Amino acid sequence: MRAARLLLALSALVSLDSLSAQRQPTIHAGARVRVSAPSEGYRGLIGTVSGYDGGDIVIKPGNEQSSVSVPLTSITTFKRSRGLKSNAGQGALIGSIVGGAFGALFAAATYRECVGEGWDCLMHPESAGQAAVYGGTILGLLGAGIGALIGANEKTERWEEVPLDQVRVSIVPHRDGRFAFGLSVSF
Known about the structure:
- By secondary structure, the protein is of the alpha+beta class.
- Helix content is 37%, strand content 32%.
- A hairpin with a 4-residue loop joins strand 1 and strand 2.
């Protein structure tokens, strides 16, 4: 009777473990990944997962026709794509710094005192420092706008590293006698 209770407790633990494994995100075929397996000659191999072949992950790199099989045991880094990110903010920052610096230097270097009165000198800066502030502000804003437009068209891929101890390959039997391979990643 005691052995039956122990067996029941163990089966409950196995069931709980398999339930938690089912909640882990799975990398399906078509997911974009970047793997390194130096012993196989791959450093930063980028492609989409085509499937699984025994203990290998099958990756179709870039625009190539053929797929590559990489043994899971040889993978040293495993990353999954989190999508593309716009560089508009970075472009605006760089544009504002470059435009602001150029505008400030140009305005300070070309500053001349106003010799007239009234409307002629109304918007004219009173000193080279004030001219630098005006020029830096105006060209800084213009540079930020141009930089944001350029940066919005330049997108970079964001990668999330998956620790290798969180990558699991599983074989699941189906009712019709076939087997399915799954790659799960826990976070």
